[in-house]
Design a protein that fits this description.
Elements (H helix, E strand, L loop, with lengths): L5 E3 L4 H6 L5 E6 L4 H16 L5 E6 L4 H6 L7 E6 L2 E7 L4 H12 L1
Parallel strand pairs: 1-3, 2-3
Antiparallel strand pairs: 2-4, 4-5
Length: 109
């Protein structure tokens, strides 16, 4: 976990993500996933830069299979953006920072 991101679990997902008044970027990741490790510092940087607009939380898919299955996550990394408790965008696979920022433009202004 980076300095600007927060970990969530099956138990805390509703509170951390679904009930959050801000848009939330959820990084579904696993410790064995190389691309997950590649994008982790990028997401931490985004979390720090846009902290006033969006929250970035990380969910270990291996340790939290209930939430992972609920949202149909089958490939890692998967980034879901939640607004008002609903998934409004999904990015599958490691993407370069400019692509991620472009995908998030509607939420981070």
């Amino acid at each position: 976990m980076g300095a600007n991101t927060k970990d969530t679990t099956d138990a805390t997902f509703d509170q951390d993500v679904l009930q959050n008044p801000k848009p939330v970027l959820v990084d579904f990741w696993a410790s064995w996933c190389g691309p997950c490790r590649q994008i982790s510092p990028v997401l931490d940087e985004i979390a720090g830069t846009y902290a006033d607009k969006i929250d970035v939380v990380k969910l270990n898919a291996d340790e939290n299979p209930q939430t992972t299955a609920k949202y149909g996550v089958t490939g890692l990394p998967t980034i879901n953006v939640y607004v008002g408790g609903e998934v409004v965008k999904s990015i599958v696979g490691a993407q370069p920072k400019p692509r991620i920022l472009k995908e998030l433009a509607d939420y981070i202004g």
